[in-house]
Amino acid sequence: MTDIAGKSILITGGGSGLGEAMARHFVAQGARVTISGRRTDKVRAVAADIGCAAVTGNVTVAADRAAMIAAALANGGKLDVLINNAGNMYRGPLTELDEAQLLGIFHSNVVGAMMLSGLAVPHLAQTRGSILFFGSSHTRRAFPGASPYAATKAAAQTLTQVLAAELGDRSIRVNCIVPGGVLTEINVRAGLLTEAEARERLTAMLPLQAINHIGQGIDVAQAAEYLITAPWVTGAILDVDGGLGLGLTRS
Ligand SMILES: NC(=O)c1ccc[n+]([C@@H]2O[C@H](COP(=O)([O-])OP(=O)(O)OC[C@H]3O[C@@H](n4cnc5c(N)ncnc54)[C@H](OP(=O)(O)O)[C@@H]3O)[C@@H](O)[C@H]2O)c1
User: Fold this and answer.
1) CA 16 to centroid of ligand 1, rounded, Å
2) Count of domains in the chain?
3) Which CATH number belongs to the domain containing residue 150 in this structure?
4) What is the Cα–Cα distance from 147 to 119, expressed in whole angstroms?
């Protein structure tokens, strides 16, 4: 395993949820972390709290993507890791989908991540770095009405394997985390639930009765740490979901 200390890590969507948890975990181990997000107040507050750099930016905007790479290079002097964590949820029955919203979720969850990854490649080639994509347990277990979101996450998982093959000759590894069951803004907003309702619903679905009954950001951060430091792991798709995606039931 390589050391996380000293690595320059760019995390999109680092102003909340899993991105924030990863940033906190990596900074605590001496990494130079840069987070991005559309809400300036969010990314600045998180960055000030944990001691990393912040850049306002939307992954669907080319100039913003360039600014994210530039900010990470300015902060870390190089780029070792790109974490394509930014993501949006859009759900709806197939017969009622709004085309603009459908294109929007593909733009942020798939196209933005691909274009940002392309920009990062020359820098990652210099450091023998890696890219981490984010899939979802929605690709493992079918939830009616979740087809737009699930399709974008299936794309992220497939991209991981194609790009692992494509970028291997530059010594760039590409891996993917498939999270599920972690209570963050994305699932509270998407389900139109209160946090308490979302917590109760998730707890009922999860087979694994963990200490806090549902997953925590640190569970995902530790998995991310493994994937970005394991030199012989590429093209891996790692489920971190308490068994949610496997459809396990409780005994
Ligand atoms: N929590 C789970 O159990 C779970 C399960 C499966 C998959 N995931 C995936 O894990 C990743 C992190 O999600 P989360 O749970 O931490 O939810 P979250 O708190 O809603 O985080 C998503 C982040 O992405 C940013 N973002 C969204 N669209 C963006 C855009 N176009 N450009 C730049 N930033 C953008 C948001 O910030 P701004 O709004 O400020 O831009 C936000 O900080 C997502 O890819 C999600 O699909 C999570």
Assistant:
1) 7
2) 1
3) 3.40.50.720
4) 29
